[in-house]
Design brief:
Strand order of the largest sheet: 1-2-3-12-9-8-5-6
Shape: globular
CATH class of the largest domain: Mainly Beta
Distance between the termini: 21 Å
Order of helices and strands: EEEEEEEEEEEEHEEEEEEEEEEEE
Number of domains: 2
Length: about 325
């Protein structure tokens, strides 16, 4: 919507690697601002730390220094700290602003890797920042914002405004059902709705299908962009992906008979707070009626394409 957008995914670990791992992740894009959220992070792996990577940059001779709260990160440094409105600047002038209460590990170390063509051992110095969720987390989460290609002065101003009355963004929900973020400057609200049910955030009352949604408007006019990310190339469960014990096997997407199947149309119901009238509706959006003072919309989607429409009062 207006060159803004969002990405969201439900991560489910494969049984071959770690079938106990799962997480809900979302990334909201508003102009040069990014808000990243995670919730429901869990795994039974108690041998390794579960981490969310913020960045990993090669440190070259002409690169800008990585800084944490204005202090330069030097070669060989390794710092672990609890965030408290922490500001990181990476070598590409991107600012990472982390609210308090998170465990941050930042380091600048030599790393060993393999050449992509011949697998020979390679070395290089990298600046890396990760959020640590500990071993075997049960319901961990995270939140951070990124200012893209910015200055230290703008980043400091943004960080300080997070504790003011005019916060640049507000996280309305961050749980296993929904991630909802309201952006002050653009006036937009993004919704990553991972499951059906009551939403009760912003203008959205409920939805009967997982969707991604962005809204912009006021009490008399509303613009919406919605996408159902499920391509629905098949329905039900593909039993050929499971063994005799019902455990998921590792199979190639290219071996699936349904990978070139047509997308199956699906009609979902979106309930909006208040009584809205059509302003500019495509053929695949219909007002079903009104219930308890709210508006019920029937929206037919396929091929995970965006549907844009406008309502008025």
């Amino acid at each position: 919507m207006n060159d803004n957008g969002l990405f969201a995914t439900i991560v489910e670990g494969h049984p071959k690697y770690d079938g106990s791992f799962s997480a809900n992740k979302s990334v909201f894009f508003f102009d040069d601002r990014i808000v990243a959220l995670g919730s429901g992070i869990k795994t039974a792996d108690d041998q390794h730390n579960t981490e969310t990577t913020l960045f990993q940059h090669a440190v070259r001779a002409d690169a800008k220094a990585t800084t944490i709260n204005g202090n330069k990160l030097a070669s060989g440094d390794r710092k672990q700290l609890a965030t408290s409105s922490t500001l990181l600047m990476d070598p590409n002038s991107n600012a990472y602003i982390l609210p308090e209460g998170q465990s941050l590990l930042i380091e600048q170390q030599q790393q060993e890797s393999r050449h992509q063509k011949n697998s020979k051992v390679t070395h290089g110095e990298f600046a890396t920042a990760v959020l640590s969720h500990g071993k075997a987390p049960e319901n961990a989460g995270y939140e951070y914002a990124v200012l893209v290609n910015t200055t230290v002065e703008k980043a400091e101003q943004f960080k300080n405004s997070l504790s003011s009355e005019l916060q640049p963004y507000q996280v309305i929900r961050k749980d296993n059902q929904a991630h909802v973020v309201e952006d002050q400057a653009s006036g937009m609200t993004g919704y990553a709705l991972f499951s059906a049910g009551v939403v009760d955030a912003g203008v959205v009352a409920s939805v009967d299908t997982p969707v991604l949604l962005m809204t912009e408007g006021n009490e008399n006019k509303l613009s919406l962009t919605l996408v159902d990310p499920d391509l629905r190339l098949y329905q039900g469960r593909d039993e050929s992906q499971y063994d005799e014990q019902g455990v998921q096997k590792e199979v190639s997407i290219y071996s699936r008979s349904w990978r070139k199947a047509p997308s199956i149309p699906h009609t979902l119901t979106l309930e909006l707070k208040g009584q809205w009238q059509p302003s500019s509706l495509p053929d695949d959006v219909v007002i079903k009626g009104y219930q308890n003072g709210n508006t019920l919309l029937a929206i037919t989607t396929e091929q995970a394409r965006n549907i844009e429409f406008e309502l008025k009062k």
